[in-house]
Amino acid sequence: MEQVIVVDDLHFKYPDGTWALRGLSFTVTRGKKVALMGHNGAGKSTLLWHLNGLFLPQQGEVRIEGRLITSSTEKWVRTRVGLVFQDPDDQVFSATVKEDVAFGPRNLGLPPGEVEKRVRSALAAVGMLGYQNHPPQSLSYGQKKRIAIAGVLAMEPEIILLDEPLAFLDPAAQENLCLLLEELHRQGKSLLVATHDVDFAASWAEEVLILKEGKLLAHGDPELLLNEDMVREAGLRLPIVAQIFRGLLPEGFTLPRDVQGARRILQAFLK
Ligand SMILES: Nc1ncnc2c1ncn2[C@@H]1O[C@H](COP(=O)(O)OP(=O)(O)OP(=O)(O)O)[C@@H](O)[C@H]1O
Ligand SMILES: [Mg+2]
Prior knowledge:
Elements: E1 3-13, E2 19-29, E3 33-37, H1 44-51, E4 59-64, E5 67-68, H2 74-80, E6 81-84, H3 97-107, H4 112-125, H5 141-153, E7 159-163, H6 171-186, E8 190-194, H7 198-204, E9 207-212, E10 215-220, H8 228-233, H9 240-245, H10 259-270
Parallel strand pairs: 3-8, 3-9, 6-7, 7-8
Antiparallel strand pairs: 1-2, 1-4, 4-5, 9-10
Adenosine-5'-triphosphate binds near residues 14, 42, 43 and 46.
């Protein structure tokens, strides 16, 4: 199984002296759905900026598809790794939505017909096809977030990093984004999603990476989110469905982590 992301002993200190990453090491295998979690200030966004070469390691190293990220590979890295920023106001800046989404593919040197095709399909994927000629500044925050996601999709990266993609989306847009993430997963993309949404992470992720104060607290399957000591230490909480069943189940049953799991338990009792 190919390791598409390898982070080894990564350290990063901001110019004001704040240590955001303090010796972080982990790997991500190609095609996995990974949730990146941890309290405010744990270092999630800082880590994501390293994974697509916006920040270079001050100590330690990051490899993407086996290649070390350095000042000479950072451009290549950005063709392989797409990052949707936490704040769309940092990402969406062109005069029109169409221009904004076209910016990346045009920079790749693609012919105009291909750029047009990618812009349309990316905007359709986030349900914003009707907004092509709108200035992004006139859109709502959630709409801007969707444009930022489209801008990354249009680059067709193999590894997609999304920083709090569900925040500010309405429930229908959240559901659409979940379907889109499933589709990208089916296409074989590697997905790393920073999120505080425990219910989403517990039902969506194949692996969970939990940061605490710039270090790795835990890395494992989503059952980690059913471990009460772990979630408390990480500043998280149990998934809602697990909270409902906590203390109620006879031996032999494990807490559910998603709605389907909860339904299976209820069906066993209602039969
Ligand atoms: N531009 C900056 N200058 C100085 N310190 C910063 C800067 N950006 C972030 N930090 C600090 O670095 C640490 C990690 O911040 P980061 O934004 O990576 O956390 P996060 O896990 O993404 O948090 P959140 O859940 O709030 O998005 C925090 O202590 C934060 O205060
Ligand atoms: Mg963040």
